Amino acid sequence: MKLILNIEEIQRIAREKEIENAKFRQFLLSQKSNDIDALVHKINDIIAPQIDCVECGYCCQNMRPIASVEVLLNYVDPENLEKYRYAISFACKHLDGKKCTIYNDRFEECKMFPYLYRNDFISRLAGVFRNYEFCPIVFNVVEQLKRETFEK
Questions:
Q1: Is the peptide bond prior to 114 cis by the omega test (within 30 degrees of 0)?
Q2: What is the pLDDT of residues 36-75, one digit of tens each?
Q3: Rounded to whole angstroms, how far apart are CA atoms 8 and 20?
Q4: CB atoms within 10 A of CB 111
Q5: What 3-state class would DSSP assign to 100?
Q6: Amino acid 94: pLDDT
């Protein structure tokens, strides 16, 4: 399977596939959660090691707001809290270019991203498809999941 890694191409394809993805989300809601979880984990185990998150860094450059003020303060300076609290996206304060300056001690939320190893994939579709447009791992896992379930 050929992976797509270019963020601009991923975003272009995401826009082109909005209707297809809406239908796929509906399809997933009719599937057995445990079966989809097992398949997502299997696909993620193949795709994730092929993508260098540190080299990409797009998620850190375009963070999505976090509801908890305490957690949000990990990523923004206190004087900028209100500015970023309801932003669509923003860059983490710990970035130097595309590199995380606290990578070895990064927050648990960062270590867990993009959450594909978690169970209950179907219950998290809104978040998955928000990440689909800017995370090469999520994008490629979802596209492979479509090929193995939806396009048969």
A1: yes
A2: 999 999 999 999 999 998 888 898 988 876 667 888 888 8
A3: 19
A4: 8
A5: strand
A6: 92
Q: Per the structure block, which two tokens stand in for 72?
A: 């949000």
Q: Rounded to an integer, what distance in angstroms lies between the CA atom of residue 44 and that of residue 50?
A: 10
Both tokens of residue 120?
């209950």
Query: Rounded to an integer, what distance in angstroms lies between the CA atom of residue 117 and that of residue 46?
Result: 12
Closest CA to 119 of 39, 4, 23, 6: 39
- In this structure, are residues 63 and 89 in contact, taking their beta carbons and an 8 Å threshold? yes
Q: Which of 139, 150, 133, 129 is nearest to 2 (CA)?
A: 139
**DSSP per residue, 38-89:** HHHHHHHHHHGGGS-HHHH-HHHHSBPP-S-HHHHTTTS-GGGHHHHHT-S-
State residue 101 phi and psi, 5-degree precision.
-80, -10
Of residues 57, 73, 56, the one with CA closest to residue 65? 73
CA 95/CA 77 separation, integer angstroms: 13
pLDDT at 65: 65
Bridge partners of 96, per DSSP, are 99
Give the H/E segment covering residue 95.
Answer: strand 95-96
